[in-house]
Every structure is written in structure tokens, then in C-alpha cells.
């Protein structure tokens, strides 16, 4: 069964929320982290044949138990830094209890998953995310395999389902239908869980009918968001956010969704290639986000050179090179209207950052004056694939990162940034890092 986004609008009225406090929940993505929502990779990552995932996970698309150990190491670093860590199953358990007490659980289930109504009394957060055997490995009266819930095997990337802004939480809408239950469940948690009730839902991408994923959104200041657009989030979402939240939104072009190539995976979300490490310090990639290198970065040159090989697929390589040319171009959408704002010249992200007083640290460290292809092939791209730029700040100038990306981490330290590391070999296989693993709720 495929749940349609319109079902999000069905269900009972949630408890009345208190008014938002005058101060921002998150005013900057590198401010001191106080509270965060995470989801340790659990049994749902190893369940087979869910309702939406089909045979993907059953045929080996999940992660093994080591991923939970790596995630626990990250959570320990967060707690050691004084961060309150909430888990998805914890807040879903709270939400279930609150909805039951209000007599509203059956109504919500009827709109989302009516097959669960007979089991409403014993539902848990683990069951909702697809981690409970009794709801997965069961048969219908004819003896056919008939799971009742989806194994939400990507939920540990909690950044993607919702993102906290200075005004409140924005619920996302996935371009991948298989991940739709994550957005539905996190909305339920924000509506009903007492631990999350202080945060108003100020934007719902399903209601706005736009695709948007949290890994593309960063809070640069109380009045500005940065947002990657093109690959997983639509430019229309940036305009709607500017309008609805009364915030400027700087849209950063990523590879277009309609041109599928390995470049789309390398530049999956904005947080794959860019992160705030301090108030005015940004970790990003060399070359690709500077206008002076447009079409002439070392990877584009290498792809076009390889296209001349008689055994190469010249069309595919040219498509990949062409998709790099416009990566990083920025547009400004104005607060309160969503209309385009004026920018000085044809800028890419690093150009805009420098013009606005930011310092940049590059993945792989400072690029050499010569030998760019070697540096790109042997340093930058390998560390990028290991999620070197996918870091999460716990305070200004202090970040959590995967271990192993030595050149990038040395560059951060040289820039005055403290780097805390944990091993993420298993988790990173599915193309994400510490920024993807965390859904910050409050920063000071």
C-alpha cells in the first residue's frame, strides 16, 4: 500500500500548542547545541519486504548491527557536550500515549494506516518504524506474506524528515515515496509528543505541494536560511519558505534531479558538500562553488578528457561534466514575499560567502597551485565520498565528524575548529554523515 500525502491532513485535532517564545529555537547552525532528535539504526534497517521499500532491503540494502554501535558513539559525544538527546521511538511512544488518552489514535490511524487499528492498543514507536517482528513477518488468511507496517530503514537520517528553524519546525516531503512514512511519523510526533509540543509546525512541504529534504536546509542566521535546490529539494520550496517563514532564503543549485548520474550522489544534499563550523566559518569544496572555475574545475576537465577514449560513453561523461557547471550558483528569495532579490553579479556559493565576510575551509585542505587533478582524484573526492564535509556543530568552532578524513580535519584544526570524531564506516555506506544523523531542536 502506498500512502498518499493527502492523508497527512486526515486525523484528529492535536493538543493546542503554546505560543512560540520570542527567541529563536535555532538561530544559527553552529550555535551551542542544546537538544537534538536522533534515531539509532535498529531492527527496521534489517527487515525485509516492507510495504513501500519492496525487495530492496530484503536483498541487502540495509546496514548491519555495527551501525548501531557507531551511532551510539556519536550520541555519547553529544551527551558529553551537554546535549539532551531524544530518540524517534521515545517521542513516538509519547505521541501514541497522548493520542490514546485523547481518544484520537484510531482516527489518526484511519487516515494513515487503517490496517493497524485492530492493534492500536499495543502499538509502540518501534512498531510504527517497522522494527517489530509481529507487525512485519505475518501472513494473511490465504497464507501470503502480509506486513502491516513499513520498515523505515532510512529513518536514522533524522535531518531529512524535518528541520528546525528560528520560527518552528518545517516538516519535509520526500521525492522518494519509500521515505514518505518518515515525514508522516515525525509530524505525528511533533503534534502529540509532550517532549516536542513546545515546537510549532510552521511549514509543511506536503501542504505546500513541494519536495524538500532537511539535509538541504541550514540556518545561517535568525533571518536567513541556506537551501540546496535541484537534486532532492525543489526551488519552489525555497520560495515558499521565504514567504511563509518571513526569512531570506539563499538557494544553492545542486545537480538537476532530471539528469541522473553519479554526480547527483556526490552532491546529494547541501550538507553533503557544505556545513557551518563556526559563526562565520564554512566547510565546503574547492573549485565547484566558485564562478571562476565554472566548467573548468579539475573533475570536469578529467571527465571531458576521458570522454575522448573510444571505449568510453562520451554522452554519459559529457552529461556528468555539464551538470557540474551550474552547481553552486546562488539565488536570493526575499523574506515575506518569496520574490527574487538582487545579488551583485553572477555568484556561486563561495563567492557569496567571501563577499559576506565568511572564511572557507576546503575538503581535502587548501588546493595546490598545480596538480589540481591529482589533488581532486586522490584527496578531495575520496574524502567527499567519506562525508568529510557532513559535520554537525555542537558549539561555535567545535564539530562532530567521522574519523579518517585526515586532510579535511587538519584544515579545520588549522582554522581554529575543534574536531571530535567517531568511526562511521558502516553508516557512511548509505551516503550520509553526522549532520544527516541529527535533527537539532534547540541551540542557544
What does this structure look like?
Helix content is 31%, strand content 17%. It has 444 residues and is an alpha/beta fold. Helix 12 (298-306) packs antiparallel against helix 13 and helix 12 (298-306) packs across helix 15 (372-385). The longest helix is centred in the N-terminal third of the chain and has 15 residues, at 66-80. The relative contact order is 0.15. Mean pLDDT is 91; it is low at 1-11, 18-22 and 53-60.
Map the helices and strands.
Blueprint: E1 33-38, H1 57-61, H2 66-80, E2 84-87, H3 88-101, H4 105-112, H5 125-128, H6 133-136, E3 162-164, E4 169-171, H7 180-192, E5 201-204, H8 205-208, E6 217-221, E7 224-229, H9 235-245, E8 248-253, H10 262-266, H11 270-273, E9 274-278, E10 281-284, H12 298-306, H13 314-325, E11 330-333, E12 340-341, H14 349-355, E13 359-362, H15 372-385, E14 392-395, E15 398-402, H16 406-414, E16 418-422, E17 439-443
Parallel strand pairs: 1-2, 4-5, 7-8, 10-13, 15-16
Antiparallel strand pairs: 1-17, 3-4, 6-7, 8-11, 9-10, 11-12, 14-15
Short description:
By secondary structure, the chain is an alpha/beta fold. It is built from 16 helices and 17 strands.
Alpha-beta classification: alpha/beta
Number of domains: 1
- Count of strand segments: 17
Largest sheet strand order: 6-7-8-11-12
Over the alpha carbons, how many angstroms does the gyration radius reach? 22 Å
Low-confidence stretches at least 5 residues in length (pLDDT < 50)? 1-11, 18-22, 53-60
* CA(first)-CA(last) distance: 42 Å
CATH topology: L-arginine/glycine Amidinotransferase, Chain A
Strand content: 15-25%
Specify the CATH class. Answer: Alpha Beta
The CATH superfamily turns out to be: L-arginine/glycine Amidinotransferase, Chain A
Q: How much helix, percentage-wise, in residues?
A: 25-40%
Mean pLDDT: 91
Give a short account of the largest sheet. 5 strands, mixed
General form: globular
User: Any guess at the CATH architecture?
Assistant: 5-stranded Propeller
